[in-house]
Protein 1
Amino acid sequence: MIQEFDIRLFNDVAQIIEQGKKQSISQVNSILTFTYWQIGKKINDHILNNERAEYGKKVVANLADVLEQHYGRSYTLRNVRRMRYFS
């Protein structure tokens, strides 16, 4: 049988766990945002060095294909294009 003290302890510990979950989600979102910005910047810098629009289109499409195969649906062509505009 759970006593009143045990319920309060559980509630306190549960609150700590929930707060930790919220903080970790916030940290992950911040890291992902920065990662996507870095990817977009790297792509834009690469394309600008070659100064050709057609080259840029092919680079982004080819890179997105390979990234999606290795890292999943977060790196589709549409998402990689968004990363470029984000940076």
Protein 2
Amino acid sequence: MRNTSVLPREAAVLRRAVTALAARARAERGGDLSLNQVAVLGRVMTHGPITPGEVAAQLRMLPQSLTRTFAALEELGLLIRMPDPSDGRQHLLSVTAEGRAALRAEMAPRDRWLARAMNDVLSPEERAQLLDAAELLQRLVAAGGGVAVVEP
């Protein structure tokens, strides 16, 4: 009888598949923003208003390594920084309307590529299975305090 535990090689197959999909989608990006800028905008859009430290923690980075990214996004008018009403020492980040539009523009080529690929390669039943699998992947991402999805 087969062990019902997930084997490391099964986990590796899944990891390679989702990594390859993410890399392929990144290759289709709009390209006007850096990958860090897209990650930060997506995080703030999904979870904001949010502190810079929280953004960094969710992205598994040090806040200092995102200082230039935050500043560049502010300078572009895509992100605003405001005082945290509950802690005067902190600031909260929010995405502006321009930031939401820029993020949508970054994601649109990825979404178009994936929609074409899904239509060309998958049957309607397989597409439904893939959407079910996407929900399972979201649960895996959230397991153990993981990082939530960045992109809208």
Protein 3
Amino acid sequence: MSDYVADIKKYTSNVNQAAVDAIVKYCGIALKGKDSQYVATKDPAEVKRVVDGFAAKKLGLDAKTAEAAVKAVGEKMAADTTKHRVTVYYLMAEHTKTMAKLTA
């Protein structure tokens, strides 16, 4: 999937292209892998990777806040069986009001 903005627009109306670009840059080659381009929001090991990686390193979130954000995004995207990593990360930043950290 290369149209990240269209996927994000399924869940939010105003999409910050610079933030999307920053997430894509952060994810890098992970977006090329069939499994790594998606987030399993109900898998504890995957949630821990997101919390310890993107949420802590890029958004500066503590574990409790990050876990709550993953849960909230997972619920928001519940109907989508393939939760794209870029969309999950974008919605986490939006949910935690840390969007500015992506473009700083």
Protein 4
Amino acid sequence: MTVNQPSQTNNPVVANVMRPLADAAGWMKLIGTLAIIYGVLMALTIIGLIIAWLPIWMGVLLNRAADQAREATAAGDEAHAITATSSLQTIFKVQGIIVAVVLALWAIGITIAIIAIVSNGS
């Protein structure tokens, strides 16, 4: 869809493609709400305050994606489908970055621990 074209509605293909997401919207909303609560609880700690915005943001994106998936399925609306899948795309990117950073920090921590154990043993 280009910027100049109006959004298509009542498109059965869009409705059918978005149906699995719409069916999972309840779970998406649950996980999104739990992520927001988790972020708020993280914000109560000093260290958690630094990164608490990430789960809150992801929770908001999940709730938005759930709403948009339901709208896309109900109306067969291409614009809602694009918004829903764009939100999910952002969630996957952020989650991938978080996992990569955590794994890197674990690797660094394990390496430091091994070096400390070896250097103390000799």
